[in-house]
Amino acid sequence: MPFIAFLFAVFLFIYVELSLLVWVGSHLGILMLILLLIGSSLLGITLIRVRGWYSLTRVKQQLTQGQLSTDALFGSLRWLVAGILFVIPGFVTDILACVLLSPLGRYLLNLFIGSRLIAFRQKLFKTHRTFYSSQGNPSREGEIFEAEFEKEADENKRLK
Fold first, then answer.
1. Nearest alpha carbon to residue 74 among 44, 47, 107
2. Which residues, at least 6 apart from 32, have a Cβ–Cβ distance to it below 8 Å?
3. CA 143 – CA 24 distance, rounded (Å)
4. Is this prediction's pTM over 0.90?
5. Cβ–Cβ under 8 Å, residues 82 and 97
6. Are the CB atoms for 78 and 100 separated by under 8 Å?
7. Helix, strand or coil for residue 6?
8. In a 3-state reduction of DSSP, which class is residue 90?
9. Which residues, 6 or more positions from 11, have their beta carbon under 8 angstroms from its beta carbon?
10. 18-26 contact pairs (CB < 8 A, 24+)
11. CA gap 85, 87 in Å, rounded
């Protein structure tokens, strides 16, 4: 059932995108429509290139200062997705890209990703596990085991 809903959403998106392209093309003319589509694609390519270099230098700067650069990475991911949406021909994708770059889009994305990230952290760091305790064995804190290891060469070099 979720697959059918996904297919319906994809077909609805394509229908709305093509209908909007035909409507704009009939009102502005085909040449203006082509220029708008080329302009939005160039804008998307420019966004991806410029923001890529900016985010690379910002992440490098934060890492040299010893800071965790998750905000810079999420911001760069948001700009990258918006650039890809601008490159895809159509006006619905351009509107989605503009919403993604707006402060409202940033807030909604941080809210959505933040809730998922908090749930992931709670599942991941629920207990302080070690390798020994994660194998289903009870942890034995305070016990120290000493052992010796000696490497011996096998004369026959065969699996036994």
1. 107
2. none
3. 75
4. no
5. yes
6. yes
7. helix
8. coil
9. none
10. 20/90, 20/91, 20/92, 21/89, 21/90, 21/91, 24/91
11. 5
Burial degree of 89 (CB within 10 A; 0-12, 13-18, 19+): middle
Q: Which two tokens stand for residue 85?
A: 């949406």
* pLDDT value at 69 more than 90: no
Query: Residue 79: which residues within 8 A CB-CB, separation 6 or more?
Result: 47, 48, 51, 55, 101
pLDDT (tens digit, 9 = 90+) per residue, 103-151? 998 888 878 877 776 666 666 655 554 444 444 555 556 677 677 777 7
Contact 85, 93 (CB under 8 A): yes
Contact yes or no for 64/74 (Cβ under 8 A): no
The answer to whether the CB of 85 falls within 8 A of the CB of 100 is yes
* All residues at 6 or more sequence positions from 106 whose CB lies less than 8 Å from its CB, including other chains: 78, 100
Alpha-carbon gap, residue 53 to 76, rounded angstroms: 10
pLDDT at 142: 63
